[in-house]
Design a protein that fits this description.
two-stranded antiparallel ribbon; Alpha-Beta Plaits; 2 domains; 315 residues; single chain; 3% strand; 59% helix; mainly alpha
Amino acid sequence: MNIKTFYKKLRNQPITILRRVIQVIAFLLINYIILELLFSINLLSLNSFLKVLPILNSPRNPISNGAGILEYIFFFITDGIIPLFLIAVLLMVLLFTNRIFCGWICPMGTFQDACAAIPTKKRRLKPSTHKSLLKFKYAFVILIIIIIIPLGVTKVSNSTFYLDYKANLGDLAEKPMGYFSLSEFIFVFFPNLIRDMVLTGSVQPLFANFLIIFTFFFYIALIILSVWYPRAYCRYICPFGAVASAVGEFSFLKLSRNPVKCVGRSECGICEKDCPKQIRMLDEPFEFFTGKGECNFCLKCKESCPYGAIAIKFG
């Protein structure tokens, strides 16, 4: 890309350029172990700082690799504690900032955007199929809750049953979101698998059991699909995305369309074509739209609207 092309893109896509810069900075900050590897420095002192900011957490955290605020909440529940403060923080962040974290800060969102940046013709699922698949991430959250609440209850009521139940759950008890986390796969599961394969000099660790085989090929397929279907993991799998969607619809921060400037889908529809989450915003009220909480607030629709009909609304 020459300087002239860059300045043209900067003029036409200022929001996207700004978002990319923030995403890269956030990715390196949150996953500061990458900076350690790149520059051979020790940033271990940041670990205690990031622990008190569970929204921004390193994958090296001992509580839950790839940990974030939702992982912390689930972890405390498994330990028989209801973390009311963390739940309140999560709700307040979502109510006041909607899903800005998903669109601008989340490392896995950045990773998926990088996959989508590979020059290919992007595809869209049928609206009915897309709508059905959106329900999967809610099912995963419900499944996690069904598993961990009894674990937390037995921790304070029946220690013997608790220990047996926890032993049977295995890693799921220590990391309730581990099997549903793309971050866990990229930063923990995959590196450990490669290490074991190198140490044994064979691919046997990959085929150790069905769960390892399924996890590996499922997430590899999901990453590949993200090249053609942007934010596939965010849309259909991410547990945090499910919670954020449920709360985001009631957020004070929303987007709105100007009924005078917006010419509708038949004459334009660029906003819907450019939306990476396949949100049909033109079916929603002019006053505000959130895609039923699915909007990541990437502002691509606002940036690409030729009529300047989309605005940020608070209240």
